[in-house]
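Entry for the shared binder. Reason: the reviewer on the internal report wants the predicted structure included alongside the sequence.
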Amino acid sequence: VLTVPQNISSTAVAAGLSAAAGALTSANLVEAVDTATDLTVFVPNNAAFAAIGSAVGNLTMEQLTGILTYHVVNGTVGYSSMLTNGTQLTAMNGGQLTVTINNGSVFVNSARVILPDVLVANGVVHVIDK
């Protein structure tokens, strides 16, 4: 049975990415990522958030928003088959992301894509380890 992809926030919750869902809520970005079109989102898994756990609680809203929007590419739906070695992407906050393929693993800057191509209503999500 095929199901229609859900929005990003619902997909994050369904995929067990509770830390990412919580961060989006804290930064008041849920509506923005759920309603924007043609997004590629690199979502850190819960372990990645746990690794920086104490730092997240000390961030200002502006800093948290900057970090979260660094993981969003607007205007591009970048499925894993389109991510080639050396691909440059511009994040929503203006930061540069570089795709590297090493021994068959896909990296975005230093974060490894551990679950590619999670379809969402307005694009694609790749779960990363950092």
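Summary line for the report: The chain has a mean pLDDT of 92.
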